[in-house]
Write a structure and sequence with these properties.
By secondary structure, this protein is mainly beta. It contains two helices and six strands. The protein has helices at about 1-10, 35-40, and strands at about 15-20, 25-35, 40-45, 70-75, 80, 85-95. Strands 1, 2, 3, 4, 5 and 6 form a six-stranded mixed β-sheet that branches. A hairpin with a 5-residue loop joins strand 1 (about 15-20) and strand 2. The radius of gyration is 15 Å and the shape is globular. The protein starts with a helix and ends in a 14-residue tail after the last strand.
Length: about 110
């Protein structure tokens, strides 16, 4: 993660989007501050991926404990946004809290 932080700082990025794709190929993610990478793992609630077309969450499709997924940035995909100063993005892999591949992630980890 230190290399990723160094890249963003070198390009004056203060906030970046952690992006991944859901099972239908739709982009998902969250925007975080660069310093967040040094503080803790990046988490994303798995219930956010099981929304109906109406926007309602289909909670019954998620484990009762509803553990967060962990986002692992792929440093090779990091980019500074040329159109928005201070912004960047990176593609992420999804993992379980134990570090295994999240079963709903369409891309290989």
């Amino acid at each position: 993660m230190k290399t990723l932080v160094e890249f963003f700082r070198a390009h004056a990025v203060t906030h970046f989007d952690c992006l991944f794709f859901d099972l239908c190929g739709g982009p998902r993610g969250k925007t975080v501050k660069v310093e967040t990478l040094l503080a803790s793992p990046l988490a994303f609630p798995q219930v956010a991926l099981v929304q109906a077309i109406t926007g309602d969450c289909l909670q019954e499709l998620v484990d009762a404990s509803d553990p967060d997924m962990t986002l692992y940035p792929d440093e090779e995909t990091a980019r500074a946004d040329p159109l928005t100063p201070g912004r960047g993005w990176v593609l992420c892999d999804l993992r379980t809290p134990e570090g295994g591949r999240w079963p709903g992630h369409p891309a290989p980890c």
